[in-house]
Amino acid sequence: GTVVFKCVTQGAGELCKTAVSYKNKYKLLGNPRHKDLTIRIDNLTWSDSERYFCRVELSGDVHDKYESRNGLKLHIIAAPRITNITVSAGGGRSFTARCTAEGEPAPALTWSGPPGGSLASVPSGSHQVTKELQHLAQDGKYTCTAVNSHGRAEGAVYFYKFKTSNSSLFLILIFMPLGIKVLILLVLVGFTVFWRG
């Protein structure tokens, strides 16, 4: 496999110097001369779940090599985390709330809030789950809860439909301030023309 970390030393009295450290993620902790050796991986991502092999070579009069034959499988586990929560408009007057969470094992998602709507699962990756609450009918707070064996996370969205009881009254309320501004502008322009004339 690809060498992701390599540390070498020339003399018996010095600590090894890093020759390879892929993306500076890997760090050597401890002192191998005192039989204390640890490798730390920083900024873990899901793609770091791989099998790793450790190899130690001693140079000098006796050139010994030690290597882990089966390696060590790194399995990342994580509490749930909500990565995205949104409300979007669909066709017509239909609205959908969508929640995406990640974790290992993959979390179970539930929606809670005002009654109504229908649940639908959306295909996702192995560590990610997405669930939609379609056809939102009621105004209010909708909460998405993600749970796995390592914890839980919540995210919420507030949904309010814009309602008008009388469309002509609504248009009057929208255009009245604009009409007043135009009228004031015309008066000012007329006053300026009258003043110069």
From TrEMBL:
Residues 80-149 form the Ig-like domain. The keyword Membrane applies. InterPro entries: Ig-like_dom, Ig-like_dom_sf, Ig-like_fold, Ig_I-set, Ig_sub2, Ig_V-set, SIG15. The keyword Transport does not apply. Keywords: Membrane, Transmembrane, Transmembrane helix. The chain crosses the membrane at residues 169-195. One of its GO terms (biological process) is regulation of bone resorption. Coiled coil: none annotated. SMART domains: IGc2. PANTHER family: SIALIC ACID-BINDING IG-LIKE LECTIN 15. This is SIG15 protein.
